[in-house]
Design goal:
Shape: elongated
Number of strands: 9
Helix content: 55-70%
Number of helices: 22
Structural class: alpha+beta
Radius of gyration: 27 Å
Number of domains: 3
Strand content: 5-15%
Oligomer: single chain
Strand order of the largest sheet: 4-5-6-7-8-9
């Protein structure tokens, strides 16, 4: 059986490192405006508001990126709603707590402690020479740092608002006591994210690693508990999930109630610009990932299986500054070949924004077609010209035989897409189809050349083309 470190570096240890990287990069603020628009429905579901302010959207985006990728997203939203309901129930108490110098110092310190713990964690996870025991010890120390810092602050905040007790007095209690009490004030889901065996082992560094069985044994001296590497990793992720969601609730409440809290200086938080995209790509199983962000482009090199490239590029949008206009993947794939994928990001951003604004519909489908038509793999278009034309013709569909205003509106939208793509023949075909349906509606016969445009449209729609990728869904 492989050593735990061998298992982990391709599974739960990498997952934990990606959470850490995601949280750390999320605090930079720069890409959060992009995330906010893409996550509006989730934010509205968490907050219960039909509309959310830009501040709330930005605050929420910090939690939504890792929650979507790694956690039980429904549970994450439930924890956030649970904590937010406590803060909303006593807004005056929360304003009083959040206005105190000690709470603000705790909030800033919590962010810094979390980031310090992240830095330590990433060093450990990237150190291939460490033994399984050294890795587990460092992970437990990471848990202890998080429990003593962020968890103590978050639970003291929730209890101070729920009970009216002073934050300063609560925050001096042991985290275990705080978690037990906070479970009794309608935050049981949040408190349940912190496994007792993990907490006890982290407090006393009481553990063993059984390489033969591939297990971690916690609380060896009293009531030992055996965990597989995967179960241990899940427990660590559950704790990160609870912290992530509670921090989201506080950030949303701060914004909703108009509480002015200075944001820590980005440079002082040690944010690395390439951290989030590198983390997301490592989640795909890629190895030797390098990300170089220049003024208007980002170049990625890696080894591993070639993923669905359009969804991957779309997912990376949340982690890239808006100034970046061009994305390039250079991947040494499992087939032994190097594949180069290029995507202009303007079209993908337009697709993302259209979907966020309008939901599913023809405008969204056309924005997708425009975006994909500009992407290349190994120098060739990801979608052939014929495939793009088929996709555009499909968007006309039965509208062509419907009421004239509907048919003209749909054909005009599709023709505008053809203009954006730069397909002169498609522009002529869809324009000619508009002329044909107008003449037919007036009882007039189109000339043979014009009528053929409608025949061409029907032919394009009937063709079948293999899609080399999954649809962009995030």
């Amino acid at each position: 059986m492989a050593a735990i470190t061998d298992v982990g570096r391709h599974n739960w240890l990498d997952a934990l490192s990606e959470v850490a990287l995601g949280v750390k990069f999320g605090m930079s603020g720069e890409p959060l405006l992009s995330v906010a628009s893409a996550a509006e429905s989730e934010i509205a579901e968490i907050t219960g508001a039909a509309e959310v302010s830009p501040g709330t959207a930005i605050a929420a985006s910090l939690a939504i990126v890792p929650a979507r990728a790694l956690y039980d997203f429904d549970k994450s939203k439930a924890i956030a709603r649970e904590c937010l309901s406590i803060l909303r129930a006593e807004p005056d108490r929360f304003r009083t707590v959040a206005s105190s110098a000690s709470w603000r110092a705790g909030e800033t310190q919590t962010q810094q402690v979390a980031l310090d713990a992240v830095d330590t964690l990433l060093i450990v996870l990237d150190a291939e020479q460490l033994s399984s025991r050294q890795v587990v010890r460092s992970l437990l120390q990471h848990v202890q740092d998080v429990v003593e810092g962020p968890v103590r602050h978050l639970t003291a905040t929730l209890l101070a608002v729920a009970t009216g007790e002073p934050y300063d007095a609560l925050v001096r209690n042991y985290p275990t006591q705080l978690l037990t009490r906070v479970a009794g004030v309608s935050a049981a889901t949040f408190a349940g994210g912190f496994d007792t065996a993990i907490r006890n082992a982290s407090a006393h560094l009481d553990f063993e690693v059984d390489e033969q069985q591939g297990e971690i044994v916690l609380s060896v001296r009293k009531n030992p508990r055996h965990m597989s590497a995967e179960v241990f990793g899940d427990a660590l992720l559950a704790a990160a999930e609870s912290v992530n969601a509670a921090a989201l609730a506080i950030a949303v409440a701060v914004d909703e109630m108009g509480i002015d809290i200075p944001t820590p200086d980005v440079a002082s938080l040690g944010v690395v610009a390439d951290a989030m995209p590198r983390a997301m790509l490592r989640l795909l199983g890629w190895e030797d990932v390098a990300v170089v962000i220049e003024d208007a482009s980002v170049a990625v090199t890696a080894r591993g299986a070639l993923p669905a490239l359009i969804p991957t590029a779309g997912a990376l949008l949340v982690s890239l500054p808006d100034r970046v206009a061009e994305l390039e993947f250079s991947v040494d794939a499992n087939d032994g070949a190097r594949h180069v994928f290029r995507a202009p990001l303007g079209g993908l951003r337009e697709y993302r924004d259209t979907k966020s604004r309008l939901g599913e519909g023809v405008e969204t489908e056309l924005a997708f077609a425009i975006a994909v038509s500009r992407c290349t793999l190994d120098g060739a278009r990801v979608l052939s010209q014929a495939a793009v034309r088929h996709y555009l013709a499909m968007q006309v569909g039965p509208k062509i035989n419907g009421p004239l205003p509907d048919a003209i509106k749909r054909l005009r939208l599709v023709r505008e897409a053809a203009v954006s793509i730069g397909d002169a023949e498609a522009i002529e075909v869809f324009g000619g189809a508009m002329t044909t349906v107008r003449l037919v509606a007036q009882g007039l016969a189109p000339d043979a050349v014009t009528a053929r445009h409608l025949d061409t449209l029907v032919k394009w729609e009937s063709e079948r083309h293999k899609k080399p990728f999954g649809l962009l869904s995030n």
